[in-house]
Amino acid sequence: MQVDTLILGAGAAGLMAAAHAGGRVLVVDHAKAPGEKIRISGGGRCNFTNLHASPANFISRNPHFCKSALKRYTQWDFLDLVARHGIAWHEKTLGQLFCDNSAKDIVAMLLAEMKTAGADLWQSTAILSVARDGAGFNVTLERDGRQVMVQAANLIVATGGKSIPKMGATGLAYDIARQFGHAVTDTRPALVPLTFQPERFAPLAGVATSVTAACGQTSFAEAMLFTHRGLSGPAILQISSYWVEGDSITVNLMPDADPYEALRSQRQASGRRQLGTVLAQMLPTRLADHLATEWALAGNLADQSDAKLRALADRLTGWALTPTGSEGYRTAEVTLGGIDTDGLSSQSMMSKTVPGLYFIGEAVDVTGWLGGYNFQWAWSSGVAAGRDI
Ligand code: FDA
């Protein structure tokens, strides 16, 4: 069978590319249904883009690489598409846009766009091998127990990263990249909860509080959640993309207040109050009790010198924690790193060395922050490749 363009992967990027590539297009995927990550994303409502999306929200060895694609297909372009399909949406927080109804609306929209463009879709199809054939590609597939050879002038690899293997994530894109001489940067789970020694935070499981979480020069002011195995919540997921094993993170538990001044004025107003009681006014009670024990806080406010209050305030604003690890690809929202952008055109996503070979979406070494940025990269890189064909 012959096609102009074969797209491997019917996820966010692959479906978007299919809607924009001209000629005879076939999309194949080993999963039973297309766009499964879209369907479960954003708690079933899909945080499909972010009003503030800009290159600054992406991590890559080459931070300039994403600029061209993001500029030529923006969050406003995607919003136009959503509007044309009558999908209602709302901003939840920090520019994050979600469907009012269901993430399934986004999958249906992409399938409709793909259909209008005349592309075909084969689900439950295994990709057995990929080979260069003259100016094109020979790809061996297995479908309904039979092998099918597809010849394609263009091959778009959109099989994503390694996060959530249970949902069908594989390292296929990296294998194909290496097969064709492309470098792949180190990959690691990102947007992932961080783990600590067993029982370190178990008694606090379920407690949430607003923090600023920092690692190196990067920080995020959002909510943090204690879990049975460690820390999660948006602030921690964000900072996990910047954390590597052995690093510590710093958590400011009072990002919106000056705890030193607050403690001093409390000492003046009600010096007989126990330190632990005062802390419980500033933080969720269970967390305050935990810290009072861990930091051996004793006595009432009047007993505390300025230096002691300063030391406590510093601890509250700079709680240094060393995670033992992360929850890994099992729960990570994305894979950090991927196909080295040095080998790709930033305008088209096409290989600089193998004409007709494209890599798009999460497989590429471009990783967005939490908040709709990763889908925006899937849309923008998918459109860049599709339009180039
Ligand atoms: P994607 O993973 O979507 O698609 C890859 C496709 O390739 C899949 O259909 C897979 O079955 C197929 N495939 C893989 N290996 C194959 C093989 N060997 N053979 C055949 N087919 C193969 N982002 C965001 O911006 N907002 C959000 O709300 C969320 N929420 C979210 C929740 C959860 C739980 C996760 C895991 C992730 C998110 N994300 C997100 C991230 C977002 O889902 C992700 O960045 C994009 O789906 C990436 O799109 P791609 O098309 O590159 O890969």
List the helices and strands and how they pair.
Blueprint: E1 2-8, H1 12-20, E2 25-28, H2 36-40, E3 47-50, E4 58-59, H3 67-72, H4 75-84, E5 89-91, E6 96-99, H5 104-116, E7 120-122, E8 125-133, E9 136-143, E10 146-157, H6 172-179, E11 188-190, E12 194-195, E13 208-215, E14 218-226, E15 230-232, H7 234-240, E16 249-252, H8 259-269, H9 275-282, H10 285-294, H11 306-317, E17 319-321, E18 325-326, E19 334-336, E20 357-359, E21 367-368, H12 373-388
Parallel strand pairs: 1-2, 1-10, 2-7, 10-20
Antiparallel strand pairs: 3-6, 4-21, 5-6, 8-9, 9-10, 11-19, 12-15, 12-18, 13-14, 13-16, 14-15, 16-17
Helix pairs in contact: 1-5, 1-12, 8-11, 9-10
Can you tag this structure with a few keywords?
389 residues, alpha+beta, seven-stranded mixed β-sheet, seven-stranded antiparallel β-sheet, 12 helices, 30% helix, elongated, binds dihydroflavine-adenine dinucleotide
Largest sheet: 7 strands, mixed
The count of β-strands is 21
Query: What Rg is obtained from the alpha carbons, in whole angstroms?
Result: 24 Å
Strand content: 25-35%
Distance between the termini: 19 Å
Domain RsdA/BaiN/AoA(So)-like Rossmann fold-like: 4-387
Protein name: NAD(P)/FAD-dependent oxidoreductase
InterPro entries: BaiN-like, BaiN-like_dom_sf, FAD/NAD-bd_sf, RsdA/BaiN/AoA(So)-like_dom, RsdA/BaiN/AoA(So)_Rossmann
Cofactor: FAD
What does this protein look like?
The strands form 5 sheets. Strands 1, 2, 7, 8, 9, 10 and 20 form a 7-stranded mixed β-sheet that branches. A 7-stranded antiparallel β-sheet has the order 17-16-13-14-15-12-18. Strand 13 (about 210-215) and strand 14 form a beta hairpin. It has helices at about 10-20, 35-40, 65-70, 75-85, 105-115, 170-180, 235-240, 260-270, 275-280, 285-295, 305-315, 375-389; strands at about 1-10, 25-30, 45-50, 60, 90, 95-100, 120, 125-135, 135-145, 145-155, 190, 195, 210-215, 220-225, 230, 250, 320, 325, 335, 355-360, 365-370. It has about 400 residues and is of the alpha+beta class. The two termini are about 20 Å apart. Helix content is about 30%, strand content about 25%. The chain contains 12 helices and 21 strands. The protein binds dihydroflavine-adenine dinucleotide. This is NAD(P)/FAD-dependent oxidoreductase.
